[in-house]
Amino acid sequence: MLLRKSILSILAVILLGSCQSPLPVGPEATETPSPAPTETLTPSPIPTETPSPTPTATPIVVGPSGFPENVNRLTGLTVDDLALLNRRPVLVKVANFPRDGRPHSGLSQADIVFDYYVGAGMNRFAAIYYGQDAEVVNPVRSCRLLDIQLTNMYRGIVACVYADANYVWPQLVDGVGYYRIFAEGTNSCPALCRDYEIGSSVNSVVANTAELTKWSVRREVDDGTRYNLEGMAFDSRPPGGSLAGDFVSVNYFSRNRAEWVYEPASGRYLRWIEEIDAEDNLTMIPLVDRNTGEQLAFDNIILLLAEYTEYDELLHNAFVAGDPDGGQAYLFRDGLMYYAHWRSYGMYRVLQFFDGNGNPLPLKPGQSWIYILGNRTELGELSPGHWEAHFYLP
Question: Average pLDDT for residues 216-224, to the nearest whole number?
């Protein structure tokens, strides 16, 4: 059964005046996967046992407001070092292409990873570090228009390798503020450094999130304030009204595919990613974190549908900030799938998720991977619990 969910969103791209900017940078080196006919793939292994939530002696129930002082508003988990919560979240732009930058470093330590389309068949990540830090995050790449919204919604600072000098950078500076943008350069190390042993020139920039926070303190954009990041609800007990959801794949194009497979033993979704061999054959392999050597595992996988606008092949935007009407979303947690609705009640308010009755839909306490997909995205259940999403531009 193929479900097509469409939403009406308001696209807000404000062309702002040019402000202070660094020396112009040339076009960003990219790999351009050519769309190819859809291939028949063998899905990654799915556990044969019936998914069941990991027992919890004392349920964790927090949010969407009134969080205890020691609870991370972005994960619902307690934090030992309260100083981590008295700072701005650190957003780091991480590339998924070219493929020779894989496996990525540091994604397993992010509270939230936003995953969205950047053109030419490629996607990119905006990883948010708040309740913990990562000493190595790689490969760091350029900012895009959508990062203006994400940085402001989560009251953060953003680290990247600059941006398109003619169009994106001026809007980023005006929209976020020059001193909340941290770009790699001559004096950026140890916060942003070049490490040619870890990857090719285009994939060689490494971020250290604790050092980025220190840099933001020196710039006086981080003064120990705890910002209002409330809005998401968390409950370790799965709510009712679900369907089976032990597998979900997201396909930007036929040569760019992600798979998440629920593992009952850990109660988390394991990440698989496409690999192209010398004969141009596509197979799925575990996506590991280079820092740990372990496969990426997240507690919540969320597909959020919004309206994309394409200005040219490598210039896109999607509107999510300050949209109280929001749109369709799908939540995968505990081997279950929920129809959901997302909203944002201000340009400086985090995303919130609701059920069909307008009540807060609780996420599982832990880390979330959030896809921002086009509102023409098609989601289908190919077999019980096995879901596939296909991204389409307007």
Answer: 97
CA angle, 82 as apex, 77 and 84 as ends, to 5°? 85
Scanning 44-191, the segments in alpha helix (DSSP H) are 146-153, 168-176
Residues 216, 58 contacting (CB under 8 angstroms) = no
List, in order, residues 6 or more apart from 280 with CB less than 8 Å away.
none
**Which element (helix H / strand E) includes 221?**
none
The answer to whether 163 and 145 are in contact (CB under 8 A) is no
| pLDDT tens digits for range 111-121 | 999 999 999 99
Is the pLDDT reported for residue 282 higher than 90? Answer: yes
Secondary structure of residue 181 in the 3-state scheme:
strand
3-state helix, strand, coil in the chain (%, to 5): 10, 35, 55
CB distance 161 to 205 below 8 Å: yes
Instruction: Give me the helix-helix angle, 146-153 and 168-176, nearest 10°.
Output: 20
Per-residue pLDDT tens digits for 160-198: 999 999 999 999 999 999 999 999 998 999 999 999 888
**Confidence band for 254, pLDDT divided at 50, 70 and 90:** confident
Amino acid, single-letter form, for residue 349: R
Q: 282 has which bridge partners? A: 276
Q: CB neighbours (10 Å) of residue 237? A: 13
Altogether, the residues listed in the chain come to a count of: 394
CA 352, 358, 363 angle in degrees (round to 5)? 45
Q: Return the residue matching tokens 């496996």.
A: 103
- State the Cα torsion 323-328-331-332 to the nearest 10°: -140
CATH numbers and ranges of domains, the chain: 36-47+58-390 (3.50.90.10)
pTM of the model: 0.87
The owner of tokens 């340009």 is 347
CB contact at 8 A, 170 and 18:
yes
